[in-house]
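#struct-queue
[09:14] JT: dropping the first one here, sequence first, then the structure tokens:
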Amino acid sequence: MIADFETDELPAGWDHGVCVVGAGAAGLTLTHELLQRGHRVLLLEGGGQSRWERRSQALNKTELEGRTYAGAHCGRFRGFGGSTSAWAGQVMELDSLDFEPRPWIPGSGWAISKSELDEFYRRAERLEGTDGLADEEAVWQGYGGAKPYLGDDFTISLSRYCPEKKFARVFSHLLQDPRCLIVLHANAVELLVSGSGRRVSGLRVRCLGGKEATATVDTVALCLGGIESSRFLLNQTISPWNVSGLLGRHFQDHVQCFAGDVIGADLTAEDWPFGPWRLRGGAHLSKINLSAEAQRAHRTLNVSGMIEFDDGVYPAMRTGIKLLTGPASAIGLREFVRMVPRAPGAIWHHFRSRSDPRFALPWAKPKLSVYSEQSPLSESRIELSDARDPLGLRRARLTWAISELELHTIRTYVSLVRQAFAAKGLGEIVPDPDLMRDRFADRLVDLFHHCGGTRMSPDPRQGVVDTDLKLHGVENVYVCSSSVFPTSGFTNPTHTIMALAIRLADRLSELAALHRAA
């Protein structure tokens, strides 16, 4: 069942067990899982059914301080399907080490172990359709029968790509389920608490046209995304969940850079496994990961890389997204000037690569591309601006910082990959001339992987949500988002977000059963 709050009213007396706020990967997964367990769900989405709805996208306008941060405007999509309407569909698990305290990394470690998510990762694969893809052993059989070996400092892993990357299609069955009411253009603006202040009894929603209503709720799951989760909670007049003062703090992304030229490597060889193209079948991409032992020895963050082409397509794409979805005011003059000559190549690559996955632009140069985790205690943060959006909420102000730990990690990784490639005769890695200089930090870009800000911890003095993702200080509000990640590894967060959503659905079902029994 679907309604539009701009033209329809919230049905009076709708008997819902859980109100899910946000219809991205987390919200859709959680809603699906709850329906499978017999719950009735009210799913509120602030956007419509189109990712190109500029007026809804304008609500994401963010005030930026410090370094340029493209993901504040390019990596957030309001609408049914959320950011999965514009992603590549790549999924990876976090490493076991990402969940463990690392003595050389302050603030590292989750309050749960990797093994606690293993079951939920498998169930997420079934929803994504990646469980039907060839396993790693079968993939490597097509490349000489064995996984490549670059020495003990590295592990080689494969990411996978969802057969259907647009989750609006994957979860389209929700639109017809009579136990699920989906309301579009219903922006959550305020949590209404009971007299004790320990329980939320209602949720105020508002549309851009100014209409307002209150939804009576039993349980609320905020699935708002990595930046919006912090912004929404910071906008509330109460904040019992913020005893720690960490709400919006230690925001993280993954940093990426082209750290060196690749000389003499035969990237067109049939058995070349290190990028930039997906392996046979188009569903897997290999990653050159720094091993856990090497991370300990060199005191680095988690980091990975591959060979990619530097062709200007990615920067042009980021600017193009802002032109299409807004806000145009987020595009600086220098950024626009750089995009103009790159745009024809980006369009050419977009259409040619559909028919020829190995197409490369004539001027493309092979580079070592590095993807690094950020410090769990990053100085990056989300705060509130004095400016307000059309709904009356204060806009986000985001500061993105790069630490010496990220630079040390990238420099160490380049040195070790360079040695490994030389030892194996795979070609020469020529480091960027600025790699060891401070100004190299200006080459690092974000990947729209918004993590941190509502950190998970069983101790309310050390986090914002507990290990069940429940907000500290209230009984019935949960946050299911990459914002709860204490650390983020180097992998795309979507797969882990889905695993957490499935885990939360199980927990809410257990609590409902206990309540019925009582």
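[09:21] JT: and here's the second one, same format:
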Amino acid sequence: MTFQVYDTTLRDGAQREGLSYSVVDKLAVARLLDEFGVGFIEGGWPGAVPKDTEFFRRARTELDLRHAVLVAFGSTRRAGVAVADDPQVRGLLEAETPAVALVAKADLRHVERALRTTAKENLAMVQDTVAHLVAQGRRVFVDGEHFFDGYRYDPAYTSAVVETALAAGAERFVLCDTNGGMLPSQVTAAIEDLAARLGVAPDRFGMHGQNDTACAVANTIAAVEAGVRHVQGTANGYGERPGNADLFAIVANLQLKLGLPVLPEGCLEQMVRVSHAIAEIANIAPDTHQAYVGAAAFAHKAGLHASAIKVDPLLYNHVDPQVVGNDMRILVTEMAGRASVELKSRELGLNLAGHPETLTRVTNRVKELEAGGWSFEAADASFELLVRSELPDSTPARPFALESYRVLVEHREDGAVVSEATVKIRVRGERVIATAEGNGPVNALDEALRVGLARHYPELRDFELADYKVRILEGSHGTGAVTRVLVETSDGAGRDWTTVGVHPNVVEASWHALVDALTYGLDRARV
């Protein structure tokens, strides 16, 4: 039976705290998921949620899906109501999707206490709704809510729910770990026991895992190894409580570790791009340490790692990062050895292999600076400037020489706080004095420096300070603590770079980072 990758980002994933998609957002996410190659996109609950009803209406004319089938989600008919008369079931049909997903109670305790109906009526609700939708030409998936907990409590009744759904025409019965409390061995045992009890091949089952034990992805892989051929997940693991099984990790593991071609050819390499694009739409910062797609997923810090990677990158990477659209990165820190510095320099386009003395000087300098609180692992631009300062034929020209700077902060009678900075610099043989105001001392200093350099370097107009971070370093306390400043700068053309500065005085630390930022940017602008 064909393997099915089923995404529920727009329905179950949207239950994450603080996440709210507009209809336009939902359409954009659906397009991205289709580009990633998923087989099914669960769009929401038409009839019950007005936004979802609108999504399905617009999707009919605005979505041109190449790989995915759009799915409307709902529940079985209400207890005591004829299926043809249930407005929620009617809403599923009016969504006009080729497939429908139904949530059904699979735990007798929920049937009796939450639905407040009988075990027999719940089975009838499953049978009637599935048969009705199949008769209307829909492909039907049934999500067995609380399946695993219900199966442990009363396996005979939960099995009856599964059997009823499949007999009525459901394409797959999805085993839901709704509370997220299962472990992989428990998932495997339940699937094997259920298949034997019903005499049904496990490929008729699906798997939907919540991540409350941090086992959602592992549970899903265990289900596949037990024979399941339908997996559900959400982009980046979004969802209620700790979230759902991360669809990207599931798919990568199935395709790269188990050798199952679950996506169309060429789609797996879109993973990082799609993951980050969906995070942007959701207004959630991408998790840098997320498996496969995180910026740190293939980042190496220890010098021992770097030495091995220099020989063969796969010695410390479990897969080639490029197969999922990611890159390997070498982090230069106090743990760096010569191999780390050499590899990182090569990554930045600087070859130190033929300069052993320079390599030694840079390595020692990095260790010395890192011991004083500097950190280059997130400041590639400052590291590149450091390396190039040691290479005679590659030293970047400093755009100016500092004579002095001064920063004043004025708290006025009306409560306004204004910062003013004056810089005295020498630019191309000319002495320049420039003054500017800002909303803070660092902003004022940045503005004054730009004013002083503008005539000689007009390209500075395109530079923008995109981010500014200050951290109090460990081991230092109070107002006299040593601070580390990271400055991210953009040139308005899609390029950005990060620089670092460290000093007990936060303004001086910021000055170091600002000077590096402008030096690096101006040097790049001349390339």
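[09:30] RK: nice, looked through the second one.
[09:31] RK: DSSP finds 17 helices and 16 strands in the chain.
[09:31] JT: good to know. Confidence is low (pLDDT under 50) at residues 303-311.
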